[in-house]
Amino acid sequence: MRIAMIGTGYVGLVSGACFSEFGVETFCVDKNEEKIAQLNEGRIPIFEPGLADLVQKNRAAGRLFFTTDLKAAVKNADAVFIAVGTPSRRGDGHADLSYVFAAAEEIAHALSGYTVVVTKSTVPVGTGRRVAEIIRRVRPDADFDVASNPEFLREGSAIGDFMRPDRVVIGCESDSAATIMRALYRPLYLIETPIVMTTLETAELAKYAANSFLAMKITFINEVANFCERVGADVHDVARAIGLDGRIGSKFLHPGPGFGGSCFPKDTLAFVRSGADAGVPQRLIETVIELNDRRKEEMAGRIIDACGGSVEGKTVAILGLTFKPNTDDMRDSPSLSVVPALQRAGAQIRAYDPEGMKEAATILTEVEYCKDAYDAIDGADCVAILTEWNEFRALNLQRVRSLLNRPVMVDLRNIYKPGDMAAAGFDYFSIGRPNVRPAQQAAPRPVLIAEGN
């Protein structure tokens, strides 16, 4: 089979590489000549574990190609995937579909023979119908169907998510389109992956509903963490207690500084705007957005409080700048709220991130970017962990303490245990758990003994 993937951003590049791994002849198309040149030289413009090796392997096997020639890529393709960006539209928060519609028009001019045109980008309900209208207007003679195939990839583990997904959602309304889409995903049938075949509108809505629900889980546990702090409870024990309930599940019940990235912020906002347009306001998700925005702003205050109520003239070491580990993505990262707020309060910032500093430097100015975690900590008055990169999970605490002017750590990802930090001599502040100081030891958890019958 042969496909064209229009757009070599995160979704298009990962999806194209993975389809080629399935044995599909894949042509990835982008107008950015510099990016295509980089890809043809084997240089990957994003950081995603395993992606560089996958691209190299399938280019060498003659299954994966990168080009700026959309017409040549679309010619004789069984399916053409639209995987361009759908950022929040400036001013109103709706998804900006201009790139999707422009791609649809270009695809229409290039179609030859029956083709399934697939929206892979995250798009509001009704987009697939509009794509079909554009193609019919441009090419009334075209033989095609439109399908919706939303992606559910997590940055940092995208290849595994594509190769071993929880499910594949396909929205289409003809047997011909369904046959081609099933054939493309045939390797997943062998591992019994659920394939949800549905309508265009249902598939489009499913993506927004999924991301909004996950964002809601994150916001919920952050609210519970605030409650735990007030009453002396441990949010991790609460999360475990409720997460063991099969109706709830344990994933996305990890407290932190708020969600960010390329998906949740824009998708929750687009979900709310689309719901309002349809006359069904999504009040719950409106509140989720409001609470998450407020939480990011509050995180700088926690660091300031840990520093005695003022960071004027003090140095704060920031470990982690990306919105999550195993990516270089800075979009809507909590660090974009925390660092400027600390700077406005008079702090000097020394920062380190394993992959995100190049991008961060274009956004966060007057920051001293360091070569590693210990370099950032050296001479600081406080260290704050914003992203849970693995290399931050086992820092040499004695070395950290010796490098700090004061042994203060603010752990916004809860990667250390309060008792261990107190024993190591730190003033330790985390999320949803009691704060500890060197003189304190975390109280032992009560042992519950079930009485016999």
Could you please describe the fold and organization of this structure?
This protein is of the alpha/beta class and 453 residues long. The protein has 3 domains: 197 residues, Rossmann fold, CATH 3.40.50; 84 residues, N-(1-d-carboxylethyl)-l-norvaline Dehydrogenase, domain 2 (Orthogonal Bundle); 133 residues, Rossmann fold. 42% of the residues lie in helices and 13% in strands. It contains 18 helices and 14 strands. The protein has a 6-stranded parallel β-sheet with strand order 3-2-1-4-5-6, sandwiched between helices. It has a 6-stranded parallel β-sheet with strand order 11-10-9-12-13-14. A two-stranded parallel sheet has the order 7-8. Helix 5 runs parallel beside helix 6 and helix 12 runs antiparallel to helix 13.
Q: How would you summarize what this structure contains?
A:
This protein has 18 helices and 14 strands. It is an alpha/beta fold and 453 residues long.
Structural key phrases:
14 strands; N-(1-d-carboxylethyl)-l-norvaline Dehydrogenase, domain 2; single chain; Rossmann fold; six-stranded parallel beta sheet; alpha/beta; 3 domains; 453 residues
Radius of gyration: 24 Å
Q: What is the CATH level 1 assignment of the largest domain?
A: Alpha Beta
Order of strands, widest sheet: 3-2-1-4-5-6
- Largest sheet descriptor: 6 strands, parallel
Net shape: elongated
* Low confidence ranges: 442-453
**Strand residues, percent:** 5-15%
Structural class: alpha/beta
What name does CATH use for the topology of the largest domain?
A: Rossmann fold
